[in-house]
Amino acid sequence: MRFTVSPETLLQSQSESSASTAPYSPEDFDRVVMSTYGRFPLSLERGQGCRVWDTDENEYLDFVAGIATCTLGHAHPVMVEAVNQQIRKLHHVSNLYYISEQGRLAEWLTQHSCADRAFFCNSGAEANEGAIKLARKYGHTVLGIENPVVLTANASFHGRTLATITATGQPKYQKNFNPLVPGFHYVPYNDIAALEEAIADLDQDTRQVAAILLEPLQGEGGVRPGDRAYFQRVREICTEKGILLMLDEVQVGMGRSGQFWGHEVLGIEPDVFTSAKGLGGGIPIGAMLCKSSCDVFQPGDHASTFGGNPLACGVALAVCETLEREHLLDNVRQRGEQLRAGLRAIAQDYPQYIEEVRGWGLINGLALKSDAGMSSIDVVKAAMAEGLLMVPAGPQVVRYVPPLIVSEVEIDQAIAITRRTIAAL
User: Fold this and answer.
1) CA-CA-CA-CA dihedral for 229, 234, 235, 238, to nearest 10
2) What whole-number distance in Å separates Cα of residue 244 and Cα of residue 271?
3) Secondary-structure class of domain 19-75+327-425 per CATH
4) Among residues of the chain, what percentage have pLDDT more than 70?
5) Would you tell me how many other CB atoms lie within 10 Å of the CB of residue 103?
6) Are 71 and 319 in contact (CB under 8 A)?
7) Residues 6+ apart with CB under 8 A from 333
8) How much is the pTM?
9) By mean pLDDT, which of 1-5, 248-252, 321-325, 412-416 is the weakest?
10) Which CATH number fits domain 90-325: 3.40.640.10, 3.90.550.10, 2.40.128.270, 3.40.1110.10?
11) Contact 70, 254 (CB under 8 A)
């Protein structure tokens, strides 16, 4: 049977669709949506490139990009075409069948990284959940550990599920959600002596280390880059002891560091790493990637209903190919240097307020002094009033994560607004 749609039905559908996309007031929104976010008083309606417009047609330069997610900005023609083509062809089937788009995306990711295999899911938290499960099974079946432990860093962020907030070394995310998931231990970031001491102490217990999970650059923890020597020593330790080195690349991966992956900046290869956010350019998708030597999963060990469906994978592949074809890594490096230079000039002019500028590529932080008399939220709100959207990375760090297509002119505009904002505050 062939299904057809009459012109009358199509016109009615379009009319109903127009009505359903009318602006929705914050009051009505708060009445029906759970208040799990501290939202800014802003309703965004549409976007183009690195700019977005609210329901009152006010224009903003978007240096949030869905929190480091909109790789190609808003309404990029490649993504529009990829969604259009795939939704007309096949948008979802079960992972009980082979999915060509998933295979092609996995091939691109493994060809452009040190990984051999991929597991697809819907988000960064799910990707990190998969990595944690893989580490536990690896600990039991390969290392023979009775109670495998995953070491993570203080001030880290790995997601909002129960296991990933336990992996997250920030008590504020864990408050009132205990009992937390056992099997995690925290160490200071970039402190190799503390990490070696923790491994030695745990080796004396039945709780032995099966994996170390770190961010190459801590995003939510204040845009803190990993130290190259530290990570290279961690890699050596993991190799010596058979411990899995797992890197959370959810925010810093997919070109945001100026390389495809943050671990390339550090000059190491992990055993496992995770991706999400920028992978789909705003279409929900996550991935856990690993070397074949640690792929201990078998059928039934892990799964995802929506993970790796044709629509998400088709769009993600288009994003990946565009990132490569248009040489966007060059733009990330150039615009990142331009942004940091501009922010450092501001810091030099306002040393009483700004502690430092730090970051890689197009993930950068403006760190405010603790006694500056202003917080990151203060700066974000004031910049928003000037037409620039930014996002905090903790109470004293303002984060700049624009789309990777950002232009030289747009970087200059963001620097100018930041300067005016700091001066006004």
Assistant:
1) 160
2) 6
3) alpha beta
4) 95
5) 13
6) yes
7) 258, 361
8) 0.93
9) 1-5
10) 3.40.640.10
11) no
Say if CB 410 and CB 50 are below 8 A apart: yes
pLDDT band at 12 (very low <50, low <70, confident <90, very high): low
Catalytic residues: 157, 248, 277
In three-state secondary structure terms, 419 is helix
Q: What is the pLDDT of residues 211-264, one digit of tens each?
A: 999 999 999 999 999 999 999 999 999 999 999 999 999 999 999 999 999 999
Tell me what the pLDDT averaged over the chain comes to: 94
190 Cβ contact list (under 8 Å, min separation 6): 224, 226, 227, 230
Any bridge partners for residue 187, and if so which? 153
- For the chain, the C-alpha Rg in angstroms (whole number) is 22
- Whether residue 368 contacts residue 40, with contact meaning beta carbons closer than 8 Å, is answered with no
Using the structure block, give the residue that is written with the tokens 């759970």: 34
Q: How confident is the model at residue 114 (pLDDT cuts 50, 70, 90)?
A: very high
**Alpha-carbon distance 75 to 45, whole Å?**
12
The helices-and-strands tally (H runs, E runs) of the chain is 15, 17
- Look at the chain and count its residues: 425
Rounded CA-CA distance 381/376 in Å is 9
